[in-house]
Amino acid sequence: MSWADLPCDPRVARELSACLRSNRLSPSLLLCGPPGTGKRAVAVAVAQALLCLGTEPPCGNCKHCRRVASGQHPDFKVWEADGREVRVEQARALRAATRLRPFEGRVQVHLVPEAERMNEEASNALLRTLEEPSPHAVLILLTIAPSLLLPTIRSRCQSFRFRPLPARMVQERLEKDGGVPAEEARWRARLARGSLARARSLPADEIELAHDVARTLESMLEQRIRGRLAASIVDAAERWSSETPAERPLERLLEVCRDALLAHHGAPVDSLLYPELGPRLGRMAGRLAGTLPAGIQRLEAALGDLRRPMKGNLLIEESLSTLMHRP
Questions:
Q1: Same structural domain for residues 132 and 217?
Q2: Helices then strands (H, E): number in the chain?
Q3: What is the value of pTM for the model shown?
Q4: pLDDT tens-digit profile of 173-201?
């Protein structure tokens, strides 16, 4: 097993590998970054390296590496959130566990995958563990939102920041590990925003929904000329509001509008999320004149508004009305 094979930011893999080789790894690690950027895979690799019997850890083949990968190693414990949060009882149990000697390896490795979900009591209990580290334990915290952790927790950890994955890496992983056909892997990687997890979970009709958005916007421009814009907006909102999850049509609208604005200003076709729509989107942007920036802002706000109890079709109607308004 090679650090270069991990689905993560290569820079982070190199830094962690160097720390392990030079014995400069802190007993408390904080891996931060967007979802799907390889944090958990790297945490498992660190655990394997610390428990590995091979000459170049992690070898991936010894009994310790295999048992860590399968979640069956007695010295590798994962502390998942209990429902919506990591509770104080879990943090106290983790603290007690770090005081025990390892069962088989040199150290114990404790992984907290969603550290931002710790409630206040759990955070304070974990802080005590960090302030009095055990010589027999390594603690690895994963988070998508380091700002939600106590500053005192962040300051006591060796931090590694994960950046979104390059689209090429995502595409190669989908083809190699998931057996995804090349063309499908290409569009999934393009829409994944650097997240391998997102690339894998995208619905199969995601591209078709984006094309539907572009066709509908073109139709609305024609209906605007004929004075039938209001009815076409209501029809589109009703059709798209049935999508699950609710943010799907808004996200596709936002992406298509951003591509249209880029195409209008002469951006290279290969820089667009939907390069196959480039010429159409450029013409559409010209007809939308000065409403595109305001429409994009309204779509961004609408995605935030989905967290509030407001019907999705109303958010779509408002966004389309802003986009199609004559300046």
A1: no
A2: 15, 5
A3: 0.77
A4: 999 887 899 988 988 998 888 999 989 98
